Amino acid sequence: MSEVVVIGGGIAGITAALDLANHNIHVHLIEREPTIGGHMAMLDKTFPTNDCSMCILSPKMVDAARHPKISLHTCTEVTRIEGDVGDFTVHVTRHPRYIKESECTGCDDCVAICPVEVYNKFDAGLGVRKAIYKSHPQVVPNIVIRDAEHCINCGLCYSVCGKKAILRDHEDGEEQAFIKASAVIVSTGYEVFDATKKPAYHYLRIPDVISSIEFERMINASGPTSGALKKRSDGTKPKKIVFIQCVGSRDCAIGSPSCSAVCCMYAIKNALLIKEKSPDTEVTVLYMDIRAYGKGYEEFYERAIRAGVRFVRGLPGDLYQNNAHIRVHVENTENQEIIKIDADLVVLSVGIRPQTDAAEIAKRLNISLDDTGFYASVDQKSEHISAIRPGIFLAGTCREPMDIPDTVAEGGAAAMRAVIRCMKGEHAAL
């Protein structure tokens, strides 16, 4: 029976894995983080319907973990792929959790007693986690991981765990393995643009200038502020919020010439959420162009205008601290009016960029990158799902920026290409 390896456990990888498994093909879903879910798990709502992100994603995560045809490999990375289409050997490295996965029940007793708090990557720096932790309450698999780097070996977690599921450093380590596969799907996702590369916006220097992913965690009811909008500088509620678009997109000066496809719509979504939570808050969106190209997107934009969100066509050249506010100067290019805004919170709508290690992963898989740093397809028109190496298929934002519906569609398309590949292999063996 043919098997397929899916690299990356975000929404594209989960979709591909479930579609393959439902075609009676065994799937190895490989994710280097402790949980599947990817960036979508960090979001509060999805546009243009404002549906709860985790309400859509979480059932799919659970289905992937429970499906008898899917083997889930978390904390695992692909190191190289040997062989040819129909007969790949995928070499993987499993990184230690320092947890007996078969014994851990995810009860969180060890998390509650741990005295160490460190930066929480999942909360984009707005929250903290323990040295033994789950990234968020709905992780799949529902197992903790011990961070050996920050653990002080106080022994409290060992003593409180009734299942004796926590391992010491010498009791766990990296493991090497290989998987035979007929096809491989790459769905490794993206990274958001590092806003410090736009020094004029003073990200990390002015506390109340934050990135859009930080804002997503702030407005999320399960986030570090329980959904409350707060200024980072003093914890008060912001009365004037400004969104600045195209930060890290459509900017040749910093090597990001392409549109990130989602920034306009997620800014409109977040502006609407602010208006729903706090109608008296002034919300201004500074933009270059509004790109509302999908089904229902233009109507979503018009809904934001009716809700009182102000849209100004123009991007500021600089920001600066003005007492307790952030002074924003911008020219409205539609009427040449100079506008001055004293904002309490500025949100930078950062774009989608390739993973930092995309070139290294491409080398491991023997596939190519395009001029923008994303994985290259055989042909953007007719073969955009296929990588340069036969038998390897691309899905989602590892190939180019796209929204969640398009990402899901690509996951399904890649799965069907892999199904066809597996069927060809089985027929050849008859």
TrEMBL record:
Alphabetical list of InterPro entries matching this protein: 4Fe4S_Fe-S-bd (IPR017896), 4Fe4S_Fe_S_CS (IPR017900), FAD/NAD-bd_sf (IPR036188), FAD/NAD-binding_dom (IPR023753), HdrA-like (IPR039650)
Keywords: 4Fe-4S, FAD, Flavoprotein, Iron, Iron-sulfur, Metal-binding, Oxidoreductase
Domain 4Fe-4S ferredoxin-type as annotated: residue spans: 95-125, 141-171
Annotated family: Belongs to the HdrA family.
Quaternary structure and partners: The ferredoxin:CoB-CoM heterodisulfide reductase is composed of three subunits; HdrA, HdrB and HdrC.
PANTHER family: COB--COM HETERODISULFIDE REDUCTASE IRON-SULFUR SUBUNIT A (PTHR43498:SF1), FERREDOXIN:COB-COM HETERODISULFIDE REDUCTASE SUBUNIT A (PTHR43498)
Protein name in the entry: CoB--CoM heterodisulfide reductase iron-sulfur subunit A
Organism of provenance: Methanospirillum lacunae
